[in-house]
């Protein structure tokens, strides 16, 4: 009986720890997600991976950009802008145009 | 590390080397190294260019013509005349030109070196699945025993699968070359193109059984 009660106690402690870890982890992830703003840029001419590398090169040089993802299927580029920093539409359009592509639309997180 | 990779690739390029023309202009600040090996083993060439903007590039071009045993060294200027960007396709029209000299030991004149100029246009169109290109060049030596000549190249290609960004991409292509001064003026070469990240390579075997190998690296 004593053993059973002890085991139940252990199980409760382990479960509590797991729950706490999950909540903390979620809070960290949630906190990290809040650190960037996503900007989706619709681009014409984005058909070739080899040539699209230029966009990575150009945007990773900007300190405001935490990450860039190029999606050839959707013809779009997704920029993760660091929280507290700005990269306005005019600058984004100019950088993409200077790289040889055409911007059709910019969509920002609200 | 970049310098080491660049040097190794440069050496590979010098060793194996004929004619690829993918992207004569790169992204702003981009450096492109193109080694090309003429598929009838007649010409090896190397083109290294820098693109201050996405509209033009300037670089060095070297060619070695094995049959004629002469070398060409030139400053080459490539200009993107017009680009058409559509939702699922892109087309480009380029003008290319160069000025330099040909080193020709068999020259009847005392001077082995003779000035040379060349110029041509290039056009390409592609979607995620289809590709077509055409380019030409007229080469005009100043004097000596090398006549002017005109070359053309056309390609069509298809992607057997459509990869995502970052994947290894593959294209199956057919290339047709034409040289105004060659006995066999036209040459057909089926080839396969692979590219991933900033590396592109092509392998092919011409109808005469000669190997084509091209390599492009973009820095």
Q: Helical percent range of chain B?
A: under 10%
> Major sheet of chain B: order of its strands?
1-2-3-4-5-6-7-8-9-10-11-12
Instruction: Please report the two chains with the greatest interface, counting residues with C-beta closer than 8 angstroms to the partner's C-beta.
Output: A-B, 26 and 33 residues
Overall average residue pLDDT of chain A? 85
CA(first)-CA(last) distance of chain A: 58 Å
* End-to-end C-alpha gap of chain B: 12 Å
The order of strands across the largest sheet of chain A is 2-3-1-4
Structural class of the helix and strand makeup of chain A? alpha+beta
Name the helicity range of chain A: 40-55%
Main sheet specs of chain A: 4 strands, antiparallel
Anisotropy-based shape of chain A: elongated
Query: What is the N-to-C succession of helices and strands of chain A?
Result: HEHEEHE
- How much of the sequence of chain B is in beta strands? over 45%
Structural commentary:
The complex is a heterodimer of chains A (110) and B (219). Helix content of chain A is 48%, strand content 27%. Chain A has 3 helices and 4 strands, in the order αβαββαβ. Chain A has helices at residues 2-33, 49-59, 89-98; strands at 36-44, 65-71, 76-82, 102-108. Chain A has a 4-stranded antiparallel β-sheet with strand order 2-3-1-4, with helices on one face. The longest helix of chain A has 32 residues, at 2-33. By secondary structure, chain B is mostly beta strands. In chain B, 6% of the residues lie in helices and 60% in strands. Chain B contains 1 helix and 12 strands, in the order H-E-E-E-E-E-E-E-E-E-E-E-E. Chain B has one helix at residues 2-15; strands spanning 30-37, 43-51, 56-65, 70-86, 89-103, 113-126, 130-141, 149-158, 169-179, 186-196, 199-205, 211-218. In chain B, a hairpin with a 5-residue loop joins strand 11 (199-205) and strand 12 (211-218). At the A-B interface, helix 2 and strand 2 of A face strand 4 of B.
């Amino acid at each position: 009986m004593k053993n059973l009660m002890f085991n139940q106690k252990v199980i409760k402690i382990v479960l509590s720890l797991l729950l706490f870890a999950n909540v903390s982890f979620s809070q960290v992830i949630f906190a990290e997600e809040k650190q960037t703003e996503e900007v989706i840029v619709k681009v014409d001419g984005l058909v070739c991976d080899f040539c699209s590398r230029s966009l990575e090169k150009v945007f990773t040089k900007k300190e405001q950009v935490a990450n860039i993802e190029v999606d050839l299927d959707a013809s779009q580029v997704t920029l993760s802008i660091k929280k507290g920093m700005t990269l306005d539409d005019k600058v984004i359009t100019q950088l993409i145009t200077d790289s040889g592509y055409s911007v059709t639309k910019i969509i920002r997180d609200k | 590390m970049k310098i080491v990779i660049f040097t190794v690739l440069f050496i590979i390029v010098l060793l194996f080397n004929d004619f690829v023309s993918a992207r004569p202009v790169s992204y702003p600040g981009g450096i492109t190294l193109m080694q090309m090996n003429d598929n009838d083993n007649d010409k090896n060439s190397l083109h290294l260019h820098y693109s201050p903007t996405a509209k033009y590039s300037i670089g060095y071009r070297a060619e070695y013509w094995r049959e004629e045993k002469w070398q060409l060294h030139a400053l080459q200027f490539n200009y993107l005349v017009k680009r058409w960007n559509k939702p699922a396709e892109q087309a480009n029209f380029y003008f290319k030109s160069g000025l330099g000299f040909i080193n020709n030991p068999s020259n009847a004149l005392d001077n082995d070196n003779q000035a040379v100029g060349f110029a041509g246009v290039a056009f390409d169109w592609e979607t995620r699945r289809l590709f077509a290109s055409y380019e030409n060049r007229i080469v005009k030596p100043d004097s000596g025993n090398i006549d002017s000549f005109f070359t053309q190249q056309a390609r069509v290609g298809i992607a057997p699968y459509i990869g995502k960004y970052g994947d290894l991409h593959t294209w199956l292509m057919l290339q047709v070359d034409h040289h105004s001064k060659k006995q066999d003026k036209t040459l057909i070469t089926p080839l396969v193109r692979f590219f991933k990240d900033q590396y592109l390579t092509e392998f092919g075997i011409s109808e005469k059984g000669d190997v084509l190998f091209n390599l492009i690296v973009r820095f």
